[in-house]
Design a protein that fits this description.
Blueprint: H1 2-11, H2 28-51, H3 54-76, E1 78-82, E2 97-101, E3 116-120, H4 134-145, E4 155-162, E5 167-170, E6 177-179, E7 182-184, E8 200-203, E9 208-212, E10 234-235, E11 239-248, E12 254-255
Antiparallel strand pairs: 1-2, 2-11, 3-4, 3-11, 4-9, 5-6, 5-8, 6-7, 9-10, 11-12
Length: 283
């Protein structure tokens, strides 16, 4: 009996979970409690720093949070776009802030004829991307995201005139633009402008867009890039979003609707829709 008791006593001599092993290292339970105790202390320290420091610190933090929120909204939902030129008059004036709907084409929908879109012209309108200082690029990107600066030099705003498969030509005997053989009455054109002074006849490749400015005599658009890589057409994946509202100045605040000019244009290949492929301007 005494031998059995001694053996049991020997087996029970291992240190308890909360007891230090005797070599100077803390016990496992104590270490876990120490870590759990440090976490709420750090939370309290952060909370004290955020709530302390007086009204100036709180105002600064509120400003930072607002900027972060605006940048997130601008990156994924709605982005202000400052009109940099007169190429879209009379629809837009220079300096107008347009709100670009970035969700318009995110869920399976695609740009339609008559939509006003903002797109990245790299590879279509711009062959060599302009170099820009990193700091300057960050400042411009942040300021343009809230409409305080003009957009990047590679960003454009134009109206969609033809989508993939469309035959777009100008002009018919009465000087009108034709899409798939149907003349288009473009009431949104700048007063006194012709649909185009440069004749052209092109079939838009699938997955591409033919875009033009509303102020045709003051717009560098798809017509000006016919002889370049891409033939002046804009890839769908370069579209940033659709211009849905004028947000500034206050006196010009309005929503933008798709015009009825293209309502009667037939689909490509439909009866009366025209046929043939012409890769460049014609005389």
């Amino acid at each position: 009996m005494d031998t059995d008791a001694a053996q049991l006593s020997e087996r029970d001599r291992s240190p308890a979970p909360d007891e230090a092993p005797g070599d100077g290292t803390p016990a496992q339970g104590a270490e876990q409690r120490s870590r759990s105790a440090r976490f709420p202390r750090r939370v309290r320290q952060v909370r004290q720093w955020l709530t302390g420091g007086g009204p100036l610190r709180r105002a600064g933090l509120l400003l930072i949070l607002c900027l972060v929120f605006l940048l997130l909204v601008s990156s994924y939902v709605v982005q202000p776009f400052q009109i940099p030129s007169g190429s879209m008059q009379q629809t837009f004036k220079v300096g107008d802030r347009v709100l670009v709907n970035k969700l318009a084409y995110r869920f399976g929908d695609e740009p339609r004829r008559g939509d006003v879109i903002v797109f990245d012209g790299t590879g279509s309108f711009v062959q060599d991307t302009p170099s820009e200082n990193l700091v300057t690029a960050l400042i411009r990107k942040g300021a343009s995201a809230v409409g305080l600066m003009r957009p990047a030099e590679t960003d454009y705003i134009k109206r969609v005139v033809g989508v993939g498969g469309d035959r777009v030509r100008c002009c018919d005997r009465r000087g009108r633009l034709e899409v798939n053989g149907r003349p288009v009455l473009e009431e949104y054109l700048y007063p006194g402008d012709e649909p185009s002074r440069v004749p052209f006849d092109i079939v838009v490749p699938e997955g591409k867009l033919w875009v033009m400015g509303d102020h045709r005599s003051d717009s560098r658009d798809s017509r000006d890039h016919l002889g370049e890589p891409g033939g002046g057409t804009v890839p769908l994946d370069r579209v940033i979003g659709r211009a849905d509202w004028i947000g500034w100045p206050l006196g010009r605040m309005t929503s933008l609707k798709r015009p009825d000019a293209f309502a009667d244009v037939p689909d490509p290949g439909a009866p009366g829709g025209g046929a043939g492929h012409h890769g460049g301007p014609h005389g």
